[in-house]
Specification:
The structure holds two protein chains of two kinds. Chain A is an all-alpha fold. Chain A contains 25 helices and four strands. A four-stranded mixed beta sheet of chain A has the order 1-2-4-3, with helices on both faces. Chain B is mainly α. Classes of the chains: A mainly alpha, B mainly alpha.
């Protein structure tokens, strides 16, 4: 199963789930109405048609209000969810050794998978070993680990846990979780009302007159009934949630091994949990609604959202003997050579992929890429890496990347920054400027993508300023080049959701013809970038168009004026809302167009990655030739 | 009807309360950004003093004053970081920081009179590091003040002020610094 098939499956199972919930809600409505009828008719009637619309409406209102509250609290994005669970953000520039190691592991994983640096959190008061990922897409994704996780795990184990969380994001498990938790809240709302009625009736029962006695009794019974219905509903909702969640955990474990090629890392992390007195427990009361998001069971309950530890370990490590777990936990963690310290002396980047392989790499990771990322990180000038760790340096770095080589334009750009009154930023830019100018092309975008973590720490006012400045710097020369386009797209996609909340877009089903034209725009732009003469351009275009299916036979290479970056941008916006299946075909077609002449230029690779990123299909940086 | 009204009111109160808690956490967390840079600065100062000592034989008073100011700022920062929502410890930190900044600028002014010291590579690197750390502090302070202001507004406007007062959400202390040097234009030099 590749990335696209997994995404498609995630969508389908969410649909099935909603049908299942639909039945549950119908059953609940009937049960509430039966309760109401029985009480109003003094136990004579199970169903009164006249009152049905009212009771049905009220029940639906309560359930949907609950769903709304639940979804709103989660749809606020990864950061809000992590904060709600008591997470403290990890400063990207932190010098605490445990936090530093966590940051490094995630930085490597982020560069390697092409996903921007997520916001990181520590659950400071949680001593159990656990972690979770939250967020809707790769843009507003947060990873939180417990204090126990930082203190008890070694680097390989932590890498396994982080890889597991990345796979949740790449498998689109977050969307599913959002729906699961929202509906669970809906049913919980019903039980909550039952409980309130129950308590009101109980309280007024003590000081009542004769008259109100009957009403109180009815209220009492009604509350009790609602409470029971809510409980039973929750029972089934949680059971469904748990069953699905267990499947996803197995998949995430398998993906983590695939990413790191190191089954020992994640297996040892699980073994440590098994042998650790607090295990993976999470004390925060809000954790119960989010049980399914964690790395290991947050609660010991009947409805385990995770498969038993022993089963998970056995799948990863067939020779596992549970009795050894205790021994393993007592043994001081073995010091291994950390992946980053072992260096990256093996020479250039991993081998150039063939077109057919590109789609298989979307949303996937191989150890070679993690090593490559570690090497890339090690090769970056230290002051620039340090700058990506705090907001001021990160902003100055992005400004620096956008400075033009032409002195006149650059002077205009400086004048513009001077005008907006950011002296601190300019001073920082003065310091970093020469080092930024000397950067090789291939490390410019990854550096900008590292900086997103610190840029998330800007205040909303600072971000508005930053966004305006970036736009102004890009427009200073009255033209947008490819790098500027890719950088702007990347920043907007990954920072806008946090600062300028917009509702998530639903999948659109445009008629295929409209999307074909968008595909032609992308392919033409890639063909113009990759080939000089007209015949080679047409050949590259055709190689891509062939992948779009028979309907694409009529497509022709567009002239440069009809496939400029503004048009590419519009095409990407439409394609971003398409179904995964469509995205797969488009990316495959682009990869074929790029690889047609057997050679992938830096510029082509940059655009291909920007395309993948815009379509929510993170491409690893494998393509640097 | 009554039950519905009570329920809506309950949902509203919980929503506002949670909103206040979120904003308070956000400005508390924004303080961590300043704290990282403050610590960096506190670590640089003993090195700076050590470097100056070799040259400034007759200025031990100035040097000691800087060290004393640094030490009291370190402990004030520790208290403020433990709870940035506590206005008192925040004010103490502001005061200690003010003294430290004054002491440092005195020291750097005196250092101007020692050409050998000014040419010392260690001194140049330290001064550069100190300046860029101060820039970062200024920037982080801006973010902190933005977050604290947002929280303060929320706790003062109707109707959330009713809930803020009932549950004792105290006002956040802003980090105000009037520093003319920060507003100056910067000459671009590369």
């Amino acid at each position: 199963m590749d990335f696209f098939a997994r995404q498609e499956a995630a969508r389908r199972s969410t649909g099935r789930l909603l049908v299942l919930y639909g039945f549950a809600i119908a059953a609940i409505i009937l049960a509430v109405h039966a309760l109401f009828s029985l009480l109003t008719s003094g136990g004579a009637q199970w169903f009164t048609l006249s009152t049905f619309p009212v009771s049905c409406g009220i029940t639906l209102l309560v359930v949907f209000a609950g769903v709304g509250v639940g979804k709103a609290s989660l749809s606020a994005g990864g950061r809000a969810v992590a904060e709600m669970c008591g997470g403290r953000p990890v400063e990207p520039g932190s010098r605490d050794p445990a936090e530093r190691r966590f940051l490094n592991v995630v930085e490597e994983m982020a560069i390697a998978s092409g996903v921007p640096m997520p916001a990181l959190f520590v659950l400071e008061d949680e001593l159990g070993i656990n972690a979770f990922a939250a967020g809707h897409n790769t843009g507003d994704f947060a990873v939180a680990v417990s204090r126990g996780c930082l203190d008890q795990l070694d680097r390989d184990e932590l890498q396994g846990v982080v890889a597991h969380e990345f796979s949740h994001i790449l498998n689109n498990d977050m969307r599913r979780n959002l729906n699961l938790t929202g509906w669970l809240y809906g049913i919980m709302g019903l039980a909550l009302i039952g409980r309130i009625l129950f308590e009101i009736a109980g309280r007024s029962g003590r000081s009542r007159s004769k008259d109100s006695g009957q009403i109180t009794a009815a209220l009492f019974l009604f509350g009790l009934g609602l409470l029971l219905i809510g409980w039973v509903g929750q029972f089934f909702a949680r059971a469904i949630q748990a069953a699905i969640s267990r499947q996803r955990e197995h998949l995430a474990d398998a993906s983590a091994v695939q990413f790191t090629r190191n089954p020992e890392g994640i297996a040892n992390a699980l073994k440590k949990i098994a042998g650790y007195p607090t295990g993976s427990n999470i004390a925060n009361p809000r954790a119960s609604a989010m049980a399914h998001m964690f790395f290991a069971s947050a609660l010991n309950s009947l409805f385990a959202t995770h498969p038993p530890l022993e089963e998970r370990i056995k799948l990863l490590d067939p020779h596992f003997n549970p009795e050894l777990a205790q021994l393993l936990a007592d043994e001081p963690s073995r010091s291994r050579v950390p992946a980053a310290a072992s260096g990256f002396t093996g020479g250039g980047p991993p081998p150039l992929p063939r077109a057919a392989k590109v789609t298989r790499q979307v949303g996937s990771l191989a150890p070679a890429q993690i090593n490559h990322a570690a090497g890339l990180l090690a090769a970056l000038p230290a002051p620039l890496v340090a700058a990506t760790h705090e907001p001021l340096g990160a902003s100055a770095l992005v400004y620096g990347l956008l400075l033009d080589a032409e002195p006149a334009i650059r002077a205009a750009q400086f004048a513009r920054l001077q005008q907006t009154g950011q002296p601190a930023c300019l001073r920082e830019l003065n310091r970093l400027g020469p080092k930024i100018a000397a950067l090789p092309t291939g490390s410019r975008l990854p550096l900008a993508s590292l900086a997103t973590a610190a840029l998330r720490r800007l205040s909303p006012a600072q971000y508005t300023q930053f966004r305006r400045d970036v736009d102004a710097l890009i427009e200073a020369d009255n033209s947008v080049d490819l790098f500027e386009f890719a950088l702007q797209k990347n920043l907007r996609r990954h920072l806008d959701p946090q600062f300028l909340p917009a509702p998530a877009r639903a999948t659109q089903h445009y008629p295929a013809a409209a999307l074909l034209q968008d595909g032609a725009v992308l392919l033409s732009c890639l063909a113009h970038l990759g080939a000089k003469d007209r015949t080679a351009q047409a050949a590259a275009f055709q190689a891509g168009a062939m992948q779009l299916g028979t309907a694409a036979a009529g497509l022709r290479l567009l002239p440069l004026s009809e496939c400029n970056l503004a048009q590419v941008d519009a095409a990407l916006d439409r394609l971003a809302a398409a179904a995964p299946r469509v995205k797969k075909v488009v990316i495959e077609a682009c990869a074929h167009a790029v690889a047609h002449d057997g050679f992938i230029h830096d510029r082509e690779a940059e655009l291909l990655r920007a395309i993948g990123d815009s379509l929510d299909c993170p491409l690893p940086p494998l393509l640097q030739a | 009807m009554l039950v519905g009204g009570a329920l809506l009111l309950g949902i509203f109160v919980v929503g506002v309360y949670n909103g206040l808690v979120t904003l308070r956490n956000r400005f508390k967390n924004a303080f961590a950004q300043i704290d990282v840079q403050l610590k960096r600065r506190y670590d640089l100062i003993p090195n700076l003093v050590e470097t100056c000592k070799g040259y400034m034989k007759h200025e031990s008073g100035t040097l000691e004053a800087v060290i004393a100011a640094r030490n009291s700022a370190v402990s004030a920062a520790g208290r403020a970081a433990a709870n940035p929502a506590d206005a008192d410890s925040m004010r103490q930190l502001l005061q200690a920081e003010g003294q430290l900044t004054a002491g440092l600028s005195r020291l750097l002014a005196v250092a101007e009179a020692y050409p050998d010291l000014k040419a010392n590579t260690n001194m140049i690197a330290l001064q550069e590091e100190l300046t860029s750390t101060e820039n970062r502090i200024a920037f982080a302070r801006q973010a902190f003040n933005d977050a604290a202001t947002e929280y303060n507004i929320k706790r003062e406007v109707f109707p959330s002020n009713l809930i803020a007062n009932t549950f004792n959400f105290t006002a956040a202390e802003l980090w105000k610094v009037e520093n003319a040097a920060e507003r100056q234009n910067v000459k671009v030099s590369f």
